[in-house]
Design goal:
With 349 residues, this protein is an alpha+beta fold. It has four domains: 1-62; 64-191, no CATH class; 194-218 and 279-332, no CATH class; 226-267. Helices cover 35% and strands 27% of the residues. The protein has twelve helices and eleven strands. The protein has helices at 9-14, 17-27, 35-45, 49-56, 81-89, 166-179, 199-205, 226-245, 248-267, 271-276, 295-300, 344-348; strands at residues 68-74, 110-116, 121-136, 140-154, 159-163, 187-188, 209-217, 282-285, 304-317, 320-329, 334-337. Strands 1, 2, 3, 4, 5, 6, 7, 8, 9, 10 and 11 form an eleven-stranded antiparallel beta sheet that branches. The protein is elongated and about 85 Å long.
Length: 349
């Protein structure tokens, strides 16, 4: 099957409204209404393989991208994975969708379809239960909801890219590795390690800007109490007043008092470390410029352990520059692409 044949209705909902309107225009369909109405109109019209190929192929670089989290995994060996998939499923997912029983569907991902990219890589699509939804009428009915996620497999390089939230990605990768009995060799790729766990370096590599940072203090001080906090507040207040009246004696008096309260151990630490004392999570954000150019970020960065960061960067497509943003998760070792305009080109960058 080609990519157009494994597209499902929720994939259409990922497309920007302008793309949906273009499809309607090309097919002679009514282009009025909200995005959901347009997608439903297109889906009802796509009732043959020929129509799907004509309508969906121009957008094949968008259907499995959009707003999504991406995690990467490696195995010792994925050679002949396609053969083992067909043997285990008793069905060739590259030729037709794998049938499944809705009653037996659970949170373990079930292979549904596949499409070749080249001679050693391909898309696999999985379906699984993903929570519940409530329907409120005369009574309240709770129904299970299903989710479809996409994985890109590269047999030659024993590489798996899963496009789903990190917890689901782990399950999907395990199912894929299980076809070739490689569960024990399966490892989530620590893509941040080559960058020295430094989100600034990732932003530079992308030629982008860091506009939001999440981190926690590297040093935890359980001896920092109310008196010490008051001493720091006095220092800030004294500095503010100094710029008003230039009374250096008052400033010196305040600093001496603070030094006595903080004691030898604390006073030996950088002042920025003292300011961060007792903080659990520290978030910094700017709207337009690069956060790294702000004084506050430069002061605190050496004493913070990053847990995530938001980066915006440009990608050229068809000769036009487009701006995209991602969230880098240090602990989850994943990236979340925030725009429904995200394409395969953006993910590859």
């Amino acid at each position: 099957m080609n990519v157009s044949e494994i597209v499902i209705f929720p994939d259409l909902l990922k497309l920007p409204k302008n793309d949906l309107k273009d499809i309607c225009t090309n097919e002679g369909l009514d282009e009025s209404g909200a995005a959901f109405e347009l997608a439903k109109r297109i889906w009802n019209h796509a009732n043959s393989s020929e129509k799907k190929h004509r309508m969906f192929t121009p957008y094949s670089h968008k259907f499995f991208a959009g707003k999504t989290s991406v995690s990467w995994y490696t195995c010792d060996d994925l050679e002949n994975l396609t053969k083992y998939i067909i043997e285990k499923e008793g069905h060739n997912p590259f030729e037709g969708k794998v049938p499944y029983d809705e009653k037996h569907l659970n949170t373990t991902p079930k292979l549904r379809s596949a499409s070749k990219i080249d001679d050693h890589s391909y898309f696999l699509r999985f379906i699984y239960k993903d929570g519940t939804r409530r329907i409120i009428g005369e009574d309240i009915e709770v129904l299970p909801t299903n989710k479809t996620a996409t994985a890109l497999v590269d047999e030659k390089n024993s590489f798996i890219e899963v496009r789903a939230k990190p917890s689901d990605a782990e399950k999907i990768a395990e199912v894929i590795a299980g076809y070739v009995k490689q569960q024990l060799s399966l490892h989530r790729q620590d893509f941040i390690k080559p960058f020295g766990y430094n989100i600034d370096v990732i932003a530079d590599t992308l030629g982008g800007e860091l506009y939001e940072s999440k981190a926690s203090p590297e040093l935890w001080m359980d001896t920092f109490g109310d008196d010490e906090n008051e001493a720091l507040l006095d220092i800030f207040e004294a500095l503010s007043k100094y710029f008003e009246n230039q009374d250096i004696d008052k400033l010196q008096e305040c600093l001496d008092n603070a030094k006595e309260i903080l004691g030898g151990d604390l006073i030996s630490l950088p002042f920025a470390v003292l300011v961060l004392a007792g903080m659990g999570n520290v978030g910094l954000k700017v709207e337009e410029k690069d956060l790294r150019n702000t004084a506050l970020y430069k002061v605190f960065k050496p004493y913070l352990q990053p847990s995530g960061g938001y980066i915006r960067f440009d990608v050229e497509e068809s000769g036009v520059q487009h701006t995209f943003s991602i969230v880098v998760g240090v602990e989850s070792q994943s990236i979340y692409f925030r725009s429904n305009k995200t394409t395969e080109t953006v993910i590859k960058k």
